[in-house]
Design goal:
Largest sheet: 8 strands, mixed
Radius of gyration: 21 Å
Number of strands: 32
CATH topology of the largest domain: Immunoglobulin-like
CATH class of the largest domain: Mainly Beta
Helix content: under 10%
Bound molecules: CU-O-CU linkage, copper (II) ion
Strand content: 35-45%
CATH superfamily of the largest domain: Cupredoxins -  blue copper proteins
Number of helices: 6
CATH architecture of the largest domain: Sandwich
Distance between the termini: 34 Å
Length: 456
């Protein structure tokens, strides 16, 4: 849906059936379609009216992940739409071009809802991609790719039945869907192609790599363009994160985008919990990587961009003021007390700073306009932290300068051990519609690894 002229769009959540495997319908949900939702294009500097209609039998909150907008438009768990209801937030798009997304964010049920298909992509555009020399022909040399791993039963139906291990590690599938398609392939022109990669999985961390080891030029992270492209052979992408890369297909040779396994380091409890199930099709011939998407260069598609631009965004990198204060977050897998795992067995709650999420408790109060330094630590396994309502920069990762994937503007970051980040809190959020910060492993979020904050 292109809103750049109309300034409005409508998405309707409904239940339906999708044949991932032809002839075998799976029960799914989506926006305007049976699985996932439309790609919505919005232009920076404009106001867009969203109409979100809930035709499901349960309440549904829809969050704009990556939009820097006030709390009362954010679509967090306090803004659930009743069955049959409509929500019409006005979205002031006042941030640089970026690939963002929207997804279900209902209290306690985000994981099953997103898994069932309630997610979609939003592209913030600024009309300057031609000038920059970046591919921007949607669906031709500018591809939106939602990566999701899913589990299927013996008859080929998509299933979500998390066991205890899945609650601990997050629910992993063994088959890949790209934009809802099993065993997908993409025809691309014999030119430089832009891939907008969205990790829409509940829990899986990808280590993306091409089977022929061709390089990718990273041009954008979660919240916008980098100053210049960064060459990578491998791209790590955790749940909730996005990356835009340029890939050169001008040789005409096909290539397979694959994922190497993300291997947990460390022992103890983590070793006991084990690594998540691997993706099917991983082969020794491909360095143990599993195939995700086959690219077939086609001579009959228009080859427009043939060189990688040297400069993407010549705006001077925005400097953040020195932080006014610092905070510490510990992403905890075991929260004590009678409901906690230590007290009540393995089905217990997770939390942040020792407390499971509560709709009733405001965890942080932040002065509007201030810059803060947050130190975030993961316990037992890596957790991708997402913060609503801001863009941030990574200062350090595990005591080192940030890895290449994390040098740009971010709204989600994989915290393997410890991450320090700087964020400027420009948008207001009141106590009745606070912003969230949480683990983007959705089973962890639902188990309580989330907190909320006001900005005033
Ligand atoms: Cu993408 Cu609070 O979520
Ligand atoms: Cu968000
Ligand atoms: Cu987590």
């Amino acid at each position: 849906i292109d809103t750049t002229t109309a300034g409005a769009f409508t998405i309707t959540a409904r239940a339906g059936q999708t044949e991932f495997l032809s002839g075998v319908p799976s029960a799914t949900q989506g926006f305007n379609q049976t699985y996932l939702g439309p790609v919505v294009k919005v232009r920076t500097g404009t106001t867009v009216t969203a109409t979100v209609i809930n035709e499901l039998n349960d309440s549904l909150a829809v969050h704009w992940h990556g939009l820097v907008i006030p709390g009362d438009r954010d679509g967090g768990p306090h803004q659930a739409i009743k069955p049959g209801g409509t929500w019409k937030p006005r979205l002031d798009i006042d941030q640089p071009a970026a690939t963002v997304w929207y997804h279900a964010h209902t209290h306690d049920t985000t994981a099953p809802l997103v898994y069932s298909g309630l997610a979609g992509v939003m592209l913030i555009v600024d009309g300057k991609d031609n000038e920059r020399g970046l591919p921007s022909d949607y669906g031709i040399d500018d591809l939106v790719l939602v990566l999701q791993d899913r589990r299927f039963d013996a008859s080929g139906r998509m299933v979500y039945r998390p066991g205890m291990m899945d609650r601990m590690a997050g629910f992993h599938g063994d088959r890949m869907l790209v934009n809802g398609a099993l065993d997908p392939s993409a025809a691309v022109p014999r030119s430089v192609v832009r891939l907008r990669l969205i990790n829409g999985s509940n829990a899986r961390i990808y280590n993306l790599v091409f089977d022929d080891r061709r390089t990718m030029q990273l041009i954008a992270t979660d919240s916008g363009l980098l100053p210049r492209p960064v060459e990578l052979e491998r791209l790590r992408l955790a749940p909730g994160e996005r990356a835009e890369v340029l890939v050169d297909f001008s040789s005409g040779k096909p290539a397979m985008l694959s994922s190497e396994e993300y291997v947990l380091s460390g022992g103890g409890m983590m070793a006991m919990m084990g690594n998540p199930p691997s993706l099917s099709g991983a082969s020794a011939g491909n360095n143990g990587a599993a195939p995700i998407l086959a690219f077939e260069p086609a001579a009959d598609l228009p080859a427009k961009v043939t060189t990688i631009p040297a400069v993407l965004d010549d705006n001077p990198v925005q400097q953040l003021a020195p932080p006014a204060r610092s905070r510490f977050l510990s992403m905890d897998m075991m929260v004590g007390g009678p409901g906690g795992m230590m007290g009540g067995g393995m089905m217990g709650q997770m939390g942040i700073n020792g407390q499971p999420f509560s709709m009733e408790r405001i965890d942080q109060r932040i002065a509007r306009g201030s810059v803060e330094m947050w130190t975030v630590r993961s316990t037992m396994r890596p957790h991708p932290l997402h913060i609503h309502g801001v863009r941030f920069r990574i200062v350090s990762e595990n005591g080192q300068p940030p890895r290449m994937e994390n040098v740009g503007w971010k709204d989600t970051v994989l915290v393997e051990d410890e991450v320090e980040l700087l964020a400027e809190f420009t948008r207001p959020a009141a106590a009745d519609t606070p912003f969230m910060y949480h683990c983007h492993i959705l089973e962890h979020e639902d188990a309580g690894m989330m907190g909320q904050f006001v900005v005033a």
